[in-house]
Write a structure and sequence with these properties.
mainly alpha, two-stranded antiparallel sheet, 56% helix, rod-shaped
Length: 262
């Protein structure tokens, strides 16, 4: 942006100025008539040669145009040189652009640093200052604010990063605040989905535990059915007594072997 610019009106070139009339310092004087028998009494008067007159006229025009050309150059230099007021305005404009450049770069770099893998590289809009340099006057950083499909826990972590990235600059813009609001909505939805998923998982675990308990109980009942009852035990003969066999062994006397011969 240019402030206090002056329009320069150039003086016309010297070659375009009309040539001034030139008065020759030497007036042609006619030669006296010579009365002689060998010359004609009607001889024409002598004049200055034409090439010499043109050269003198051109030299006179150049000398007359020099002051005008010098005056034109002086006026042009005076117009090209800025006034003190204009210089002051340009310095103020450069200071504003420099401060704006620093603010824009710091703002966008804060977004990119906090956004991490979800944020893109900063891009800037530049403006030329009175000194001819480029200054950043605007910028933006792209950020991925979409939820993670079928994963509310990952969506929650991602949206928390997006929220911090949107509010990272010292002075968030209106667009930054809109992104932050969208991230907060996504966070609330992800938390609700995550709580519902956890409740479903808890209910499924309880149901599985109940099924396991029922299965264990059924197995115990089956084992109890396979065991003989008290009535079945009464019908069965008593098991042999080892003590009885021991006593019988003690009462028996040793017998002599008899050989039988046919």
């Amino acid at each position: 942006m240019h402030i206090g610019g002056a329009t320069v009106y150039r003086a016309p070139a010297a070659s375009l100025l009309p040539a001034r009339a030139f008065a020759s310092p030497v007036s042609p004087v006619p030669s006296p008539v010579v009365s002689s028998a060998s010359k004609s009494p009607t001889q024409a008067p002598l004049t200055t040669p034409q090439p010499l007159a043109d050269e003198q006229a051109a030299s006179s025009r150049e000398e007359a145009d020099k002051p005008a050309e010098q005056s034109s150059r002086s006026e042009q230099a005076a117009q090209d040189e800025p006034s003190p007021q204009q210089q002051r305005l340009e310095q103020l404009e450069i200071a504003k652009l420099s401060q704006r450049d620093q603010e824009v770069r710091a703002h966008e770099q804060a977004h990119a640093a906090v956004g991490g893998r979800y944020a893109g590289a900063p891009s800037y809009t530049f403006s030329h200052g009175p000194d001819g340099k480029r200054y950043a006057v605007g910028g933006e950083v792209s950020i991925d604010s979409g939820p993670v499909p079928n994963d509310p826990e990952a969506t929650l972590r991602k949206m928390e990063i997006v929220l911090r990235a949107a509010l990272a600059p010292a002075e968030p813009s209106a667009q930054d605040l809109r992104i932050a609001a969208q991230a907060q909505v996504q966070i609330a939805q992800a938390r609700a989905e995550l709580n519902e998923l956890r409740r479903s998982e808890t209910a499924a675990a309880r149901e599985e535990q109940a099924q396991r308990a029922e299965q264990a109980k059924a197995e115990e009942e089956a084992q109890e059915k396979e065991k003989p009852t008290e009535a079945d035990r009464q019908d069965l003969p008593p098991p042999p007594s080892l003590e009885l066999y021991r006593r019988l062994g003690e009462l028996q006397e040793p017998t002599q072997a008899i050989d039988l011969v046919a």
